[in-house]
Amino acid sequence: MRRLLLTAVPALALVGALLAGPAAQAASSASGVTIYNSIPTPLPGNLVSQPFEAQQVSEFGDKVTFAGTARLLKDVTITMSSWACQTGSWVLGTCASTPGATSLVPITVKLYTNDANAFSGTSFAAVTQTVAVPYRPSASANCTGTDAGKWYDAASATCFSGKAANVTIDFSALNVTLPNTVIYGISYNTSNYGPTPYGPLPCSSTPQGCFYDSLNVGVSASATTGTDVDPDGAFLNSATASVYCDGGTAGTFRNDHSPACWTGYVPSVRFGAANPPASKDACKRDGWKQLTDDNGKPFKNQGACESYLKDKNDKDHGGQNQDDRGDHGGQNSGDNGHDK
Question: How crowded is residue 72: how many other Cβ atoms within 10 Å of its Cβ?
């Protein structure tokens, strides 16, 4: 079985990698129609997770097929598992963090071409965004015995070593139209791994260590929307061959396929996309139900779909089109006044 972390196994983890995309900014909220999702709802206090620093990992991802027809990528949301403490150490049971405290971490998501036979490593889009990731909460008196030093999640009455948190990477500025199947990779730098490791810094010699060395990528049981193409594999780049389930070539981002090894474990991510109409006809015959505006917001009815397209055409052409002046853009849900 895959050596992943849940709440107590020693593991240090992840942070950012700078490749392409917007400059540093706060994490945005997820948007668009969900075309792939493996993030559990509600999000538990923590998830099993893939460490970066502790397992010499520089990139982690998967090959997925998207559901529905929306393909204009808006964003990618990732569940991170933070084991970092502001002071003290989760290993020693002395973790202390101010509620709501976060650390800024650059995280990169790269999208790779789905090659028919072998993975070529060709990336067609990448975004690096600096996001705020929370510290794990302080050690709780409610957690005793083998749970001593963990934080207490009142919602589930459970003690956890790490803290699950979603961060969203914004792809909207790139106007990426997705193919039906892609390979994606998540990366960020730690002290010794990632595209550009940070190396020794003052935080390295503190009891709590550097934040990014105690950060992991969350892993869930399965996809609820879309398809995990290889349920027995995941894409991984580790400097150590024994970290791969198949024990094969190290130091390259590739599919780590091994029956039962990755079964029941997929990176916890969501892809959100938009599906704007190309014409008024696309809004008819309930077509509006599968469409969105450019921001990925679904339409309430056929009238809203046609009104959006009319406004967009007016803007693009600098004025109102004569043929559109009679459209019923303001009608409410349930309107039966449009063509079926």
Answer: 21
Burial (CB count <10 Å: 0-12, 13-18, 19+), residue 157: exposed
pLDDT, tens digit (0-9, with 9 covering 90-100), for 202-216: 999 999 999 999 999
Q: What is the pTM of this model?
A: 0.84
Phi, psi of 111 (to 5 degrees): -110, 130
Buried b (16+ CB within 10 A) or exposed e, 228-260: bbbbbbbbbbbeeeebbbeeeebeebbbbbbee
Burial class of residue 137, CB neighbours in 10 A (0-12, 13-18, 19+): buried
Q: How far apart are CA 50 and CA 191, in angstroms?
A: 16
First CA to last CA across the chain, in angstroms?
A: 53
263: left (phi over 0), alpha (psi -120 to 50) or beta: beta
Round to whole Å and give the CA distance between 26 and 17: 16
In the chain, beta strands by DSSP E: 33-37, 48-51, 57-65, 72-82, 102-112, 123-134, 151-153, 158-160, 163-170, 181-187, 215-220, 227-228, 233-238, 254-257, 266-267, 269-274
Range 294-301, long-range pairs (CB < 8 A, 24+ positions)? 294/72, 295/31, 295/32, 295/74, 295/172, 296/31, 296/32, 296/33, 296/70, 296/72, 296/74, 296/272, 297/31, 298/33, 300/332, 300/333, 301/331, 301/332, 301/333, 301/334, 301/335
Which stretches in the chain have pLDDT values below 70?
1-29, 116-117, 317-340
Q: What is the pLDDT of residues 52-106, one digit of tens each?
A: 999 999 999 999 999 999 999 999 999 999 999 999 998 899 999 999 999 999 9
